[in-house]
UniProtKB/TrEMBL annotation:
Top-level class of the enzyme under EC nomenclature: oxidoreductase
The organism's place on the tree of life at top rank: Bacteria
Organism: Serratia proteamaculans
Keyword Manganese: no
UniProt keyword terms in alphabetical order: 2Fe-2S, Iron, Iron-sulfur, Membrane, Metal-binding, Oxidoreductase, Transmembrane, Transmembrane helix
Keyword Metal-binding tagged: yes
Protein name: cholesterol 7-desaturase
E.C. code: 1.14.19.21
Length: 345
């Protein structure tokens, strides 16, 4: 797709106004639309919030999962019920060394999910936990979801963190659809109207499970180059480069559907400043902590401007797009690969 400018597009492509038939109705029942749970990698939690030998319950795509971390640091996600007699391992289950121990009869399961020990010394049954495909990348525990029970067929990248600050973290539970998070990246007009960016120009590049948007704009009078990479519908990495300031601000945005119409929105903000990255490590941490405090506040304020829309938005299957929204049509087509085949055709 050729680049387009939201500031200039209407002057280049004239818009012909067509009288649409009026819409009136007397029936009731209109409301938000739930979509099927999407496939792909989705965040189940932040790495630093799951300590060694800790067990947690998390809501994930219409069910509960149990997360735990062994003494050596291995993170696991499992379906919550013990294969012995069905006890919920998130209520009273504990980690002893490398084993998860059931609270009901003391059966112990190794990191591969196999039952290896009983509390009374009896021969352990041939039993195993139902483990979920899990990967831990850049401070996040991700769980793979697929409606046909397929294993992962694409992987998440590892970010280059050299010279970047420590992260600042946020977590919100919102009404609506997690798809709205990545759809934001495909909507340049809203960056201008809702967030106040000026002279917005965008391009996109599609590569199977990954969609990349590049954008040039001005904010607070400063030129900024942005790149937003979406890895499926649950993970987006946005980088804003202010070349004159030698600053790169990075946000890892994470959306996970937890019920049909509610989702977890998580974010991690980090920064890299060329001059600061050359300082001794201890001084670098102090300077970054002060700078990131203000930049993180600005990022949170900006994303919260979307919250009222996200919480109350209704999914429109055939949106009536206007000039400057070509990216949105491409994005909607791209998203269909992450849903049960045919559901969003």
């Amino acid at each position: 797709m050729d680049a387009f400018s939201t500031a200039e597009q209407d002057s280049v492509v004239p818009i012909t106004l067509i009288s649409a038939p009026a819409h009136k109705r007397s029936a009731t029942g209109i409301g938000q639309i739930a979509l099927p749970y999407p496939n792909g990698w989705f965040a189940a939690g932040f790495s630093h919030q799951l300590l060694a030998e800790q067990v947690q319950r998390v809501s994930f795509m219409g069910q509960e999962l149990v997360l735990y971390r062994t003494a050596s640091g291995i993170a696991r996600a499992i379906d919550p019920y013990c294969p012995h007699l069905g006890a919920h391992l998130g209520y009273g289950g504990k980690v002893v060394g490398e084993e998860l121990v059931c609270p009901f009869h003391g059966l112990a399961f190794n990191p591969d999910g196999l039952c290896v020990r009983t509390a009374g010394g009896q021969k352990p049954p041939v039993a195993a936990l139902t483990q979920r495909y899990t990967t831990e990348v850049d401070g996040v525990i991700f769980v793979w979801r697929h409606q046909d029970d397929l294993p992962p067929y694409w992987q998440l990248p590892v970010l280059d963190r050299a010279g970047f600050s420590q992260g600042r973290y946020e977590n919100f539970v919102l009404q609506g659809l997690c798809q709205d998070m990545t759809e934001n990246s495909a909507d340049p007009l809203h960056f201008a109207y809702l967030h106040g960016l000026q002279e917005v120009v965008t391009r996109h590049q599609e590569d199977r499970h990954q969609m990349t948007y590049t954008m040039q704009a001005k904010v607070f009078g400063q030129a900024v180059n942005m790149k937003m990479r979406c890895f499926g519908l649950g993970y987006a990495v946005g980088e804003a480069e202010f070349a004159r300031l030698g600053l790169i601000a990075r946000t890892q945005a994470l959306g996970t559907q937890i019920t049909p119409l509610s989702w977890d929105f998580r974010m991690i903000d980090t920064i890299r400043v060329e001059r600061v990255s050359r300082l001794p490590h201890r001084l670098q941490r102090l300077v970054y902590a002060a700078l990131l405090l203000y930049i993180h506040r600005w990022f949170v304020k900006t994303v919260k401007e979307d919250f009222d829309v996200w919480r109350n938005r209704r999914f429109v299957e055939q949106p009536k797009l206007i000039a400057g929204e070509g990216n949105m049509a491409v994005y909607r087509r791209w998203t269909t690969q992450f849903y049960p085949q045919g559901d969003l055709e």
